[in-house]
Here is the input.
Amino acid sequence: MTRTVYLNGDYLPETEAKVSIFDRGFLMSDGVYEVTSVLGGKLIDFAGHCARLGRSLSELGMPAPCSDAELLAIHRELVQLNDITDGMIYLQVTRGNPGDRDFAYPPADTKPTLVLFTQNKPGLADAPAAKTGWKVISVADERWGRRDIKTTQLLYPSMAKMMAKAAHVDDAWFVEDGMVTEGTSNNAYIVKDGKIITRQLSNDILHGITRAAVLRFAREAQMEVEERPFTIAEAQAADEAFITSASTFVFPVVEIDGTTLGTGTPGPVAKRLREIYLDESLKTAI
Ligand code: PDD
Here is the structure.
């Protein structure tokens, strides 16, 4: 089926949506993005994604393409036009097309490019792999220093994903100065003696919208949470591990660099948090 996508005010068949070769997103990776999941036709954590988009734009001095209310309307229209029950909506804003290549930012009144498209993933919340868990390897974190801004510079995370594939595992965890930062496209956690441990927020990691919700739900459920860095060795000795992101929710990790965690099956904390996250976030889905 040909998707209907959104480009700068128009809803178009995907084959007809065209962006200039001079677009700063194409030439400079001068763009930011968000991925919002859809469950039962509703948007999960939309306000959080909108708030983070606003922050990414302002950190880069990029104008907002439209209001949050307009963004919500576009998301909803795309869900409807593409008949999405479960899946994701990808949104990207770039600094637009200045008509030529230049390292300097174009004038502030250059129109940003706004693109959105849907990804249909029936049964997204029931992914079979969530029942078996992922295997990960560690790789050096060689990304830039502002990982708190959700930019479209995703080449190194793509390289890391390919390193994981070459090692016949599912994903990679980045390590910097001996400490885990996060996964290729997710935040990383371990659990030891019932305590959930995850790196604290800083410019070193993306401030995951799912992370914020999961930590809030965990604290509300009287689970202990410690926000601090951890090593791969500590992770390998943990009782369990998991990741979070908008597309995987809470997802168990059962092997790190060839070492099986616990029983090698998803642990009780990850399973419980996944259930709580899905239940609670569906209640506030819009
Ligand atoms: N990735 N860390 C990184 C590096 C990410 O790319 C992501 C999200 C996360 C989790 O953030 P959130 O919970 O807000 O999705 C953490 C998205 C899903 C992606 O690139 O497809």
Remarks:
- The pocket of N-(5'-phosphopyridoxyl)-D-alanine is lined by residues 35, 182, 185-187, 206, 208-211, 244-247 (CB under 6 Å).
